[in-house]
Amino acid sequence: MTKDEFWEGVRGGFPIMLAASPFGALFGALAVDNGFTIADAVFMSASVYAGASQMVGIELFGNHVQPWLVVLSVFAVNFRHVLYSASIAKYVRHFTFGQKFLAFFLLVDPQYAETEKRGERGLPITFAWYLGFGLVIYIPWIFNTLVGAIFGQMIGDPKAIGLDILLPVYFMGLVMGFRKRDRFLPIVAVSALASIAGMHFVGSPWHVSIGALAGIVLAACLPQNERTPAPRAVEKEA
Amino acid sequence: MDPQHLNLIYLIIAAAVATFLTRVGGYILITQMKQIPPRLEAALNAVPAAVLTTLVAPAFVYGGFDVTIAMFVAFAIALGLSLSTLRMLVIGWVVVMLIRHVVM
């Protein structure tokens, strides 16, 4: 029974693992390009396990941004997970303490989306299913990072093969993924202008905090909507 | 291990702890708090788009004309055809490679 549920989870997570694989490899290659060793890249994938924030982390690290700001940015990019863990609380209450610990560690976007979907349909959310779904994404993520990092170390000039375009376009894709959220356009416009001004007048890396703060303050100051939005953030990371 | 590399290891560990806190935080909060203040929720809701935009906009303006054109084309096509991030990456890459190796 438990074994069946584990394999059901593995089957469910398999297509997501395939879709995430190029990003794992991309992270590995870009991490090495930004001054990481192969081991550092693999360690980060295994311990942080959040693709978008890992990309943000290496980009800022490569630009010699202060460490506290790197950690804060990783925290900020991952902040949506707070909504996820709040939202699936009702489904994982029956897990033991150790199971919850592991479950929250593995709580990536598709894991959240699938758990929510399954719970809404009234299907049982067992630890075996959750673990199967999580591990089939987690383990290849680490392996793909290794492959990408090894490949990245063989590249001489990243610009000649166009590697430098990938991070900005990737981040642009992530930003577009949030476009259904309230006040998306004003927030993006203000953050964009403030970060460009910050880059111009203050310099890197301060443009990141200046631009981010401008957008966040704007969102807090704008008149609030009547309806209270439920945690609906099922943005995809990749 | 040299101290600079050790700092990177600490940085990765700190990032991992911060990430784990976000993943367990909502569960802890929801069992403690009844309601998040709406302005706080609006601010939190804005965090990812605001942070990520600061990584896109300066690259678009200061990245050089090849990067600017590639980003613009990738953006326009991906938005028009609702493409995935991966396809958008491919488009951006193809455009920048064309400019660098064919046009120039």
Model description:
The complex is a heterodimer of chains A (238) and B (104). Helix content of chain A is 72%, strand content 0%. Chain A is built from twelve helices and no strands. Chain A folds into two domains: 2-153, no CATH class; 163-221, no CATH class. Chain A starts with a helix and ends in a 17-residue tail after the last helix. Chain B is mostly helical and 104 residues long. Chain B contains four helices and no strands. The interface between A and B is large, with 102 and 67 residues.
Walk me through the topology.
The complex is a heterodimer of chains A (238) and B (104).
Chain A: H1 2-33, H2 38-47, H3 51-62, H4 67-77, H5 80-87, H6 89-92, H7 97-105, H8 109-120, H9 127-153, H10 166-177, H11 184-201, H12 206-221
Chain B: H1 3-30, H2 38-62, H3 65-81, H4 85-103
Helix pairs in contact in B: 2-3, 3-4
